[in-house]
Each structure stands twice: as C-alpha cells, then as structure tokens.
Sequence to fold (552 residues):
Amino acid sequence: MKQIIIETTVRVRYAETDASGVVYHANYLIWFELGRGEWFWQQQRDYHRDVEMRGLGWPVTELSARYIAPSRYGERVTIRTWLAEIQSRAFKIAYEVVNAESRQLLCTGWTKHYNVDSQTNRAVPMPAELRKFLEGEG
Amino acid sequence: MKQIIIETTVRVRYAETDASGVVYHANYLIWFELGRGEWFWQQQRDYHRDVEMRGLGWPVTELSARYIAPSRYGERVTIRTWLAEIQSRAFKIAYEVVNAESRQLLCTGWTKHYNVDSQTNRAVPMPAELRKFLEGEG
Amino acid sequence: MKQIIIETTVRVRYAETDASGVVYHANYLIWFELGRGEWFWQQQRDYHRDVEMRGLGWPVTELSARYIAPSRYGERVTIRTWLAEIQSRAFKIAYEVVNAESRQLLCTGWTKHYNVDSQTNRAVPMPAELRKFLEGEG
Amino acid sequence: MKQIIIETTVRVRYAETDASGVVYHANYLIWFELGRGEWFWQQQRDYHRDVEMRGLGWPVTELSARYIAPSRYGERVTIRTWLAEIQSRAFKIAYEVVNAESRQLLCTGWTKHYNVDSQTNRAVPMPAELRKFLEGEG
Fold:
C-alpha cells in the first residue's frame, strides 16, 4: 500500500468562526470532507461518478478529532489527507489540518467509512477496482 | 385567503454565531426554512409527503432579508411565518424573527418558491389540493 | 458524582441534510453542542454567564462519534447528555442521539473540554464552584 | 468610481448540498461572503485589520438573492464581486455566482452594509481612507 498524501488549502470563512472568535470545532470535520474529496479528485477519481453512480455510498460511520490550536477568519489552512487503513468492507482516512503559512498543527483526526449498498444500506465488499485504487495501485 | 401566522421558537446555537459575537446573517435564512417547515407541519402538512412524494419541489427562487437587531448565543428567537402571495405556479412566504422574550424585531424577509416538476425542473401549475391548502382553505 | 441525564429534542432541518438524503454527519456534533447547552441551562447554568464572563472558556479539545443509523428531514431527534468524566482541568461530556419517536439509537459520542483562561489560552484548574456543579452537587 | 470585479472560485462541498441533491440556498450567501472577503484581500485589504481593528464593523443589514440554476457536489463555482453603490455610512456589494467551467449563471444578489461603531453599534460616517478604497481610488 503506497502512502499518498494529498494537500488542500482553503481560507477560513467568516461563517466558520463562532462567538469565541475562532473556527467552530465541527467545521474541521467539514474540512476533513474537503480533504477526502480532493484526495479523490487529485487521483482522477470522483465520489459521485465512481461510488454513488455504482449504487454504493461511503458514509462516515465513526470519527475522531483532536484540537491542538485554533484558527481564525482569513487564515489559510491546509488539510493533509491519506488512507490510514483498509479492510474488505471498510476503510479509514486520516487528516491533519495545519496553518498553510506557519505549518503549525491545528487539528488531527480520522474518519471510518463503510462501503454500503445504497439500496439496502448494508456494508458490502468493495469492488476490486475501487479497492485497488484505495490501496494506491489503481 | 385566510392569513395564518405560525410561530416557531428555537434557541440560538453556538454554531450559529460568528466571530463578531452575534448570529451570522445567513443563519436567519435557515430560520426562515424552519418557520416554513413548521408553518407546514402545524397545519398537518409535510413537505416530503405532500410535495416531494408527488414529484414536485418548491425550491427558493428569490429571497430578501433585512436585519434590524442582532441575536446572541442562548437567546430564544421566534420565527413568525405566513403566506404573503400566491400565483398559479409560485408563491411567496414572509417571515419575521423576534426575540422570544422581549418580542424585539430582529429580522424580516420573504422567500419566493416555484412549484417545479422534479424530473424536468420546470415550473408547473400547483395541484388544486395544494393550492387550496396554501390559500388557507384546505 | 450524581449522573444527571438531560434530554433535548429538535426537528431535523432541511439545511442539515445532504445530497445522500440524510443528515450530514458533522451536524451531529452541532447537536452534541445543543445537548451540552441544554444540560447546562436545564440545571440553571449559562455558559456565557458562568464560564465566559469569568474569563474562562471550555473549548472542545477532542471528540469522538459513532454513527449507527441515519436521520431525515422533519424527524424529531432527542439528544441525551451527561457528564462522563471530570479531572481538575478537564472533563468529558457524553451524548446519545435517538429518534424521538421510536427511540432508535442514531449516534453516540463524547467531547472533551479543557477549562482554559481566555487570555492566555492555557488550561487552568476549574473554580471550585463550577467543579461542584459539574459533579452534580452545585 | 472604478468598477473592479473580483473573482473567487471554490469547489462545492458535500456539506453544502441538501436532500434535494443540490446546494442549499442559504449557502450562496456564504459564497457571497467569500466573494466579499476576496474582493477585499485581492486589493491588499483585510477586514479584520482594516475594519474590526479600527473599532468598526460592516454588518449585513439587507440582502437579496435570485436563484437561476442549481449547483452540485464537486462542481467548481466562481463568485464575481463588485461594489455596486456607496453612501456616507453604507454601501452595497453585488455578486454573481457562475459555474466555473460553463460560466452558466447560477445566482445573483447583493448585500448592503452599514459602517458601524462596534461599541455603540450605530452607523457612523466611513473614514476617508476606507471610503477612498471602496471608491476604487485607494
């Protein structure tokens, strides 16, 4: 399994801050999703075409995040994303959010996803082609 | 056309505030949506069952809002919702957001909705039954 | 330490759903925050008055969530909230989100919070009065 | 007054879609905010430094939006932003959101902002330097 780390950089939106003056914690989970999407796109994949159009879905079934330092409106943050683990019906993606300029670590975390049949909503084995891709060989 | 005003009260979430210390302006539009949903439910209607299941949709096609006073975390706000206008393929819902305790006016606005066929995404005449309901007679 | 479980019920907003037709996973974290706020309020406490006004803050420093079943627009969900753990400078709040009607379990999780000085952004020991409250004795 | 149009391009987040399969309408207002921020930054200005640090704020006091066509997860959208009107204590920013590839028009709108003193929350005349900037001469 090759380790491919994809980076995505976005600017903090005013909408993402809260009354404490810094980014609201749940928005880091949305940034994880951005990282996940770009990890896909930058490898010439597309969640809608390659997963949803096949009658599959990769819902988040578990997640974890640790907050190390806050970020503020207008700052640029980089989300670093990689595949951390793969099983026959599930996989785990890991993330690090850093300040794009100083590279200070802001947040780390992971999300676990099951490969589910959209009709039955049950976990099913990953198609071989998608598994190869996830393993960094497709 | 009978004027039925529906009230919904919610508490301001921390997630809804921004770094200026008050509720982020776009979140009032989400409160309008809450008001719209309750306006429906409190009249024994359900958007999913009565509109979406019929192959229709009522997307927002235009909106307007004026902000009069800010609201803060933990305050309770009341959304007052009523039908402002009805045409054969479109209607307008109006809203007032007030502080639930002091009744101070915080925000006013309206949303315009077309009755669209979900397949074609085109505006079509409202089914008679729904129109009656919107006119306060169903 | 008395175990006090506080329940809060809200209706799923259209804004909270995503293109997969169900509630977007990060929104459960916002529901945790609602639960946390109500856990406070229903015990005659107020985060702004009792924490922020004292120059303190309780930022989320770590969180975890497991997703068991999806929820949909218009459904009513109940967030059950309790104090799971307390240390001198930190504490953990636990949550369960269930369907308000069927009581089906949808999501479980916890958030860890440090008691920080808002000026220095450093963890400091909890004031005795707040600690008593957290322990269910104040 | 020189007309300077600033363009910002972002990819649609899954979090921004709703159960109808397309972007939730209120998220266009957040995109307007992005456009407004970039309109500022790309002219070497910074809202926090140039407005908030001076004890001023530019809250949205009124807004309007028209929705022409939907956008979907993963699409890239471009927000075009310009100053539409300026008065002594207020100004209006206008926006167009287009599909970044096809340039199809998705949404148009404007936001009105008052120049307020953060302490008193009252509208005050714009500092000459900021006014010059807004007029495209600073």
The mean pLDDT of chain A is 94. Chain A touches chain B at residues 14-15, 17-19, 21-22, 24, 26, 72-73 (CB under 8 Å). The CA atoms of residues 116 and 122 of chain A lie 5 Å apart.
